[in-house]
TrEMBL record:
<dbReference type="InterPro" id="IPR003593">
    <property type="entry name" value="AAA+_ATPase"/>
</dbReference>
<feature type="binding site">
    <location>
        <begin position="187"/>
        <end position="191"/>
    </location>
    <ligand>
        <name>GTP</name>
    </ligand>
</feature>
<dbReference type="InterPro" id="IPR036225">
    <property type="entry name" value="SRP/SRP_N"/>
</dbReference>
<keyword id="KW-0547">Nucleotide-binding</keyword>
<dbReference type="Pfam" id="PF00448">
    <property type="entry name" value="SRP54"/>
</dbReference>
<dbReference type="InterPro" id="IPR004390">
    <property type="entry name" value="SR_rcpt_FtsY"/>
</dbReference>
<comment type="similarity">
    <text>Belongs to the GTP-binding SRP family. FtsY subfamily.</text>
</comment>
<feature type="binding site">
    <location>
        <begin position="251"/>
        <end position="254"/>
    </location>
    <ligand>
        <name>GTP</name>
    </ligand>
</feature>
<feature type="domain" description="AAA+ ATPase">
    <location>
        <begin position="97"/>
        <end position="248"/>
    </location>
</feature>
<feature type="binding site">
    <location>
        <begin position="105"/>
        <end position="112"/>
    </location>
    <ligand>
        <name>GTP</name>
    </ligand>
</feature>
<comment type="subunit">
    <text>Part of the signal recognition particle protein translocation system, which is composed of SRP and FtsY. SRP is a ribonucleoprotein composed of Ffh and a 4.5S RNA molecule.</text>
</comment>
<dbReference type="Pfam" id="PF02881">
    <property type="entry name" value="SRP54_N"/>
</dbReference>
<dbReference type="InterPro" id="IPR013822">
    <property type="entry name" value="Signal_recog_particl_SRP54_hlx"/>
</dbReference>
<keyword id="KW-1003">Cell membrane</keyword>
<feature type="domain" description="SRP54-type proteins GTP-binding">
    <location>
        <begin position="98"/>
        <end position="299"/>
    </location>
</feature>
<keyword id="KW-0675">Receptor</keyword>
<dbReference type="InterPro" id="IPR000897">
    <property type="entry name" value="SRP54_GTPase_dom"/>
</dbReference>
Amino acid sequence: MAGFFSRLKQGLSRSSSRLGAVFTHRKLDETALEELEDELIAADLGPAVAERVIESFRSTRFGKDVTSDEIRETLATEIARVLEPVAVHFEPDPTKKPHVVLVIGVNGVGKTTTIGKMARLYTEEGKSVMLVAGDTFRAAAVEQLEVWGKRANVPVIAGKHGADAAGLAYDGLKRATEAGTDLLLIDTAGRLHNKGALMEELAKVIRVMRKFDETAPHSVLLVLDATTGQNAVEQVRVFRELVNVTGLIVTKLDGSARGGIVVALAEQFKLPVHMVGVGEQAEDLRPFSAQDYAKGLVGGSNDLASRLMETPVEDTSAVE
């Protein structure tokens, strides 16, 4: 846990270093609040969240001398308040055999590796997992998923380049049902530049699976690349037009991202944020914790981080 928190803090360093520029020992006057609001918006928290945070400071701390640690601690609390309602641990429904998850997202967001990491994570929890290499237009995606399948020791349903993704999904669902598999993870194409074709393909995958199980898919998880900033907001909008997105996974919080985008997404869409990724290793994908994310986002001294980590957390929706 401590190791992952350290990597999360490092991954959010771009945002925390910007915010740190206004965190000096000073009177919290209107000028300081305006500077802080500008930095919150620059960190991609979005104007609505920035305004809410600033109004909280204005009503409770305005005109007072404050230290950087005091501002960071208060800011982390305010950000966590926005994030806590969406920090929902993803748990396969044990009444579904399998629990079918359609994983969607544009090409390049780390969708395929995220599926592989999820396979590793849930097999380590003792669940049986099967994968479907449904991004059949990218041979590299199929090969990549097969590598991850071998690492996690789980079966991968794959076809030839350009194979029918809906047929593969149906085959995977049928085989997973017969095997009593707990979790079926289905990769999909992400050619958002051709929205009409993508909509048709996703609709077909769902339609064909429902010939076997009318309740499938049970979850639709959208993978987003944190380095794209506000573009992630547009991706959520578009994919929600295509399918019923049930939750988000945010990847590539590796130091190049403006991590406030997760806060903006939480404020605007209220969709569950199930997991975040901070690197390429299997263990670098973890359940999303509002408290840890807020602490990492605002940064601060080691002493402050330690005090915050020791603070009892009532939020049990995300278990690290």
